[in-house]
Amino acid sequence: MTSLKALSTSVGSKFLVALTGLSLVGFLIAHLIGNLLLLAGPDTFNAYGHALISNPLVIPAEFGLLGLLLLHIYKALRHVLLGRRARPHRYTMRQWAGGPSRKSWSSTTMAVSGVILLIFLVTHIATFKFGPYYPSADEGVRDLSRLVQEVFSSPGYVVFYVVAMGIIGMHLRHGISSAFQSLGLMTPGWTSAVLSVGLGLAVILAGGFALIPVWVYLFL
Amino acid sequence: MNVHLKVWRQAGPAAPGGLVDYTATGVSADMSFLEMLDSVNETLIARGEDPIAFASDCREGICGTFGVMVDGRPHGPDPCTTVCQLHMRRYNDGDTIVIEPWQARAFPLIKDLVVDRTAFDTIIQAGGYTSVNTGGAQDANAILIPKTVADEAMDSAQCIGCGACVAGCKNASAALFTSAKITHLSLLPQGQMEAPTRVVAMIEAMDTSGFGGCSNEGECEAVCPKGISLKNIATMNREYRKALFANR
Amino acid sequence: MTLDPKIPSGPLSDKWDRHRFDSKLVSPANRRKHTVIIVGTGLAGASAAASLGELGYNVLSFCIHDSPRRAHSIAAQGGINAAKNYQNDGDSIYRLFYDTIKGGDYRSREANVYRLAQTSVNIIDQCVAQGVPFAREYGGQLDNRSFGGAQVSRTFYARGQTGQQLLLGAYQSMMRQVAKGSVTMFAQREMLDVVLIDGKARGIICRNLVTGQLERYVADAVCLATGGYGTAYYLSTNAINSNVTAAWRAHKRGAYFANPCFTQIHPTCIPVSGDDQSKLTLMSESLRNDGRVWVPKNAGDKRPASEIPEAERDYYLERKYPSFGNLVPRDVASRNSKAVCDEGRGVGDSGLAVFLDFQNAIDRLGHATVAGRYGNLFDMYKKITDEDPYTVPMRIYPAIHYTMGGLWVDYNLMSTVPGLHVLGEANFSDHGANRLGASALMQGLADGYFVIPYTLAHYIASTPVEKATTDHAAFAESEDNVQSRIDRLLSVKGSKTPRALHRELGHLLWDEVGMSRTEAGLKRALARIPELREEFWQNVSVPGDANNLNKNLEYAGRVADYLEFGELLALDALHRTESCGGHFREESQTPDGEAKRDDDHFAYAAAWEFQGVGKTHELHKEQFVFENVKPTQRSYK
Fold first, then answer.
1. What is this structure's pTM?
2. Domain with C297 in it: what CATH number?
3. Are C180 and C53 contacting, i.e. CB atoms less than 8 angstroms apart?
């Protein structure tokens, strides 16, 4: 069997969802660390931003991320649609099983949270990457810090961001540990550790990202 | 006691279906759920009406024949209990119970509460065995298997093929059923030889039978009357990953 | 017709080898040209289908369930015997043979039983190779336990689900052949007639239980592996769909029915709780390894078990049978339970139960060990009774569990209809008047894996059959016959349910043809059964149509057959005035109440020939010749 075909089965598809998902989580971790430089002052943040975009690898990296994202979305949506198709008639009454089940609001809303995050992502990139260009004191360096401060001076925007980060947290709460399960990495001895790390990471990422608009709004 | 039932009635696969109200009267606490349904049917038959179609056999939780959604949960409220082992002492006088058949594209409905689970046989046919012909087997003790491994294999092997995992899964996925057999055989030396081909073939059969994929929610484990663990699915995924590399 | 058991000549231990050598073979290239029908997918049917499929025959396999994996073999709990002598405790093929013959109270054929013991060792090898997860020792070797009164540990087991694991092994092997195309599976089919062409079994008529259509299948030979007839008693440990129909219809086509009165009553079942009960649940016999059976010493003592002091308890099995104690064979244990209950010493609300107490075992072995051995059984008991066996003794009572009688077969497992082979519990061959624990699984698999592949080949190779299709007049005649019976069931439109009539028959059989039988009682049964049959055909209610899934119609057809079969059961019990094994005639007992055989007059298999419904069957005898063991009065004292 070719690898391509192997990756199109239900299990193979979930490998890809998991791998792309975990890669995006890796990106988020890096992104958060970078963004937290805002707390270190506008100059540091701007210098970081400048260094990032002047790297010749940034364009391929961005396309790479876009590719990962599209693959993640495609495979995940296909998974959801297959699931829908596998049950043409719904039950009149349905209960969650409880007990050892890992079903949660987070796990049941993965598709919805994913779609919301996609909309958020488009707004987010439009707002910042393709937002107004403010030059900084340094020649050729964009004053991203000012842009961030302007954007987050609007309470509506802050609330939108915090809510979006909550949704990211929801998505990751199921997503991270689920990826490990999909990849067959959830061995019995590690199950509870993986579940806790998944939850912890989701909280840290969502909390860290949500902290920035709040902090900017309150203190800058 | 008396209990009110809302039972899914559907004359055939193409016929319209819906919940129909019945009242089971004179139900005793020692009656099993099936005996309660029997009593409803006895009344219907004596009146010359078509009884509720359901299939049951051993009625002791091992054959896997009878399985229905009870109040929106496969096999009803008790963990690790088939609905044939559910007793009416679990209910109170005047309770209402909603009974529906398994719903899945891969389990087409035959009539009322009876569905066709041939898809499970199809999955086993794809590789749920060791390729040994009768005769010619070596002495049984020539294969040493640590007790812990044998016990673990048995944990997976005790799946009864009832289909509750499919019924309880939002994707109607057969991942738990399929992975239980894959795990059982992959744990044992006898099953090693064919492990890579088995996992690939069984997963393909599962997909083509019309089951959905696994969302790792674990509802299947929670509703499995035999407590088959979600770790079987992790093992299946691992075996699949190994098979991809082994094939190259 | 004289019954020829076709026992090979020569010394006992060489018979099977010699027979296999003398048997004709079908060459590999020719096998796919031969079609074999196998009805039933339990241990015997599934193992036969898999093995014959592997050999290359064109196998058509039929079952009444939605999947072959649901056959009732799946419910067997305790284990499977094999003369492996892994425990070095003195077991051997000869000992297993001897124990089985003796346990069967000398009412089985030596040659068959010896072959069973011989093949037992291959079964375990085969199952392990399939990946059956038998229990293991810490060193990785197979674990064994002593079971059902055996004084050696020769029972292999997979928790309390041995039947399930063995069946799934056979089922998986069969599914492998389905994938290869050598076995074609027909699930949801009920065999309703055997079709004879030229006096030979050449096909079957089935009802497709989903569409209701009658279907015809033609083959070179037919194998029935359709199980026992315990459900005739209504309440039994058998599954709801287990039935006598296939065997009975074959009987009506000329297959003799042997020893139907040899029914096994299992001593450790959960007692009956009410009139609505649909089936009884067995608690594995292995429980008697550590559980102690007792009742109060005084009749009418209704105190809870915990309030009855040690001195006022009667551990009657340990008292009466010091060397076997709680592990006496099933028939002895069952009769003793009945006896103490008849004395008014039974426990529980109904007074029809005895205690099976684990307090001693828990004190001796610890809670964890007991839970490890019997945890799943205790859980099952608690689910059903709402009582916790760890703290309150179990209540148990005997129930119909297995039937040793069945269609008469010769050494080749062929019935009196040429080409019609009968395997597993459906035949009468190996267990005599009483089956030992953990021997049913052994027999089913022996027949399917290791006997029928040879004997069927011999039949096919040595019996030319004319080319036939399902257009043959015999198929039409047979189908009409089946159709008219179905039409008749639907046309009665009475007011009594098949279940009500079945329950009535069952109670009658349990009372008069149950654990202990008398001439008067059997005559009462023989008088009453035709009345019940008459009532059935006058007043049964079968709503709905025949053209779709109609469970009640299926059931009604089976009840109609029980109502014919029950009469033969009682007749056989009446004619056998001795007591032996599971058949206890009150007129024939020793002074201390044990079963008393009459070898001078009854050392034969009673094979009954059908003469018409309501007409007395004709008796044919197959005399048992004991060349190797000397029948003695069984003693477990």
1. 0.96
2. 3.90.700.10
3. yes
